[in-house]
Design the sequence.
């Protein structure tokens, strides 16, 4: 039973353009939503989060959107930079636990 | 602050051997977690703890044990290593639920 899906295993974007990463979920009990970024040989690092009562949260170049009715979470990065090249995980919280998506490898080309 | 530290960084085990993965955090966080990440996959929760003396199972606890005797330390024990336990293991901590989790650098374990 896959509660979370990141449907795009990889994404390639030109520097300066927008990167859009998407996740879908099925568990209605999820009530907080996060994005993590991971470089090779390092642990994931927190990027941005949103609570269930909001539909948008911005932090600099990063914006997270939540569509609860569609059970859809997205991350927009604009403008994309080569240093943004990493694996991005969506994560969904319910109680004490997080459930992670499978990750999307973002490659930003100069 | 060192944050979350994990030892060892790498380890190769033979089938049936046992080992303990160490995790320490210096942020005085009550919540600690152990995850495993298989190649090309997301993180799966093994065990977590909401405070010293309290542990609970996550999504994939079979073959592992944990203890939490102090706020700082949360070791993960593999008693009888199996090839299916070949993975990268991440420890994380958080001040509470509904907060971001801070991750360690990971331990890459291979069981042959």
Sequence:
């Amino acid at each position: 039973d896959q509660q979370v899906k990141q449907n795009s295993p990889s994404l390639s974007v030109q520097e300066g353009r927008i990167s859009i990463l998407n996740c879908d979920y099925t568990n209605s009990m999820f009530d907080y939503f996060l994005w993590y970024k991971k470089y090779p040989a390092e642990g994931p690092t927190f990027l941005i989060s949103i609570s269930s009562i909001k539909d948008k949260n911005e932090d600099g170049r990063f914006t997270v959107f939540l569509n609860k009715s569609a059970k859809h979470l997205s991350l927009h990065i604009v403008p994309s930079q080569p240093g943004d090249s990493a694996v991005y995980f969506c994560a969904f919280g319910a109680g004490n636990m997080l459930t992670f998506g499978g990750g999307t490898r973002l490659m930003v080309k100069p | 602050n060192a944050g979350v530290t994990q030892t060892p960084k790498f380890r190769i085990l033979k089938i049936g051997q046992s080992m303990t993965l160490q995790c320490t955090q210096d942020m005085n966080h009550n919540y600690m977690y152990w995850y495993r990440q298989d190649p090309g996959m997301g993180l799966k929760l093994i065990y977590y703890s909401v405070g010293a003396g309290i542990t609970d199972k996550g999504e994939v606890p079979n073959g592992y044990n944990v203890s939490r005797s102090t706020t700082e330390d949360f070791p993960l024990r593999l008693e009888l290593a199996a090839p299916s336990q070949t993975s990268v293991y991440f420890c994380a901590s958080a001040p509470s639920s509904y907060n971001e989790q801070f991750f360690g650098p990971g331990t890459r374990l291979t069981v042959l």
